[in-house]
Amino acid sequence: MQDVSRGVAVSVLVVLCCLSAVGPAVGAVGERGSPALAGQGVAAGTQAPPAFQSAVDPDVVVLRAAVEEDGTAAWTAEFRVRLDDENTTAAFESVQADVRENASSFTSQFATGMSRTVASAENSTGREMALSNVTVTATRERLPQEYGVLTYRFRWANFAATDGDRLRVGDSLSGLFLDRESSLVLSWPVGYERQSATPEPDATGNGSVTWRGPVDFGPNEPRAVAAPAGGGLPTTALAGLLVVLVAAVAGGGLLYRSRSSDDGAAAGGAAATADSDRGASDTETADESTEGDRETREQPPAELLSNEEKVVRLLEDNGGRVKQQQIAGEFDWTDAKTSQVVGNLRDEDAIETFRIGRENVVALPEESDL
Prior knowledge:
The chain is an alpha+beta fold.
């Protein structure tokens, strides 16, 4: 954790008030704790809310925009602080107390800056926009390590463009820069599917795309297009239909064999009765063998694993904890690719990362709490 005297308010104000970076108004978040201002996003003299001036520097910033069918987005911005020492914990508890006692001072400052951001995006896109329902919370959560989480929530009307039944998301954020601690998640309604995303996302979820910093979006980035699923059976439906057809064919074969067996049942009845005890014993042995084979089959070969699954298996084979450099060496990955895969797993809470000296350590959740 770096200097605890650097305020989270600076990060809050700059990250969110510079989100609308259309054309020359490029919003930038620079090195951690030292956000960079550019263009018309926020004037250099903008003052941060006094309540945050002695607060802590966030370890992780997650910006999420859940876009609805009419283009309005429900936004959340999470500023996560790892509570790993007394000074950081005390600093966050001070922020938490301030939020409880006077949340309106936080939301009013935030709404003032964010309204300028929305107005800038409105001018650049030509869509009428509005900011509403600004709230703030400060909580402590285990992810699995303990974090202090400051969360702003708000609604941004017409954040995305609608083109018939398509949603075109991202023109309100053109030119945004995310530092290495930040990520941006854009999602769309249930029943929609992605048609395109630029640049290529670092991760895709069930109805969402994620970009992780550091990333410097171009003047026409980020962009995502989503539309209602249709125009034929979805992939999952086709897969289900294939399963039904296979089952039907297998059932037909079984019926044929069953009828053939019935034709010879009278002739073989006595022999079947005599061998019944031995058959039962053989069946038990076969079941045990089949169970062992099934357990073996449940472990797919390494070449069929995703990158994330490979890392989890490596952790399981090494007592639940390895150095990040060991992962890169094991799979002959670049540092950038290793960081991306580890970041995917961390966002899914499948792993936790921490430092020992100069080394980054990756651990399964149950191991990181030891």
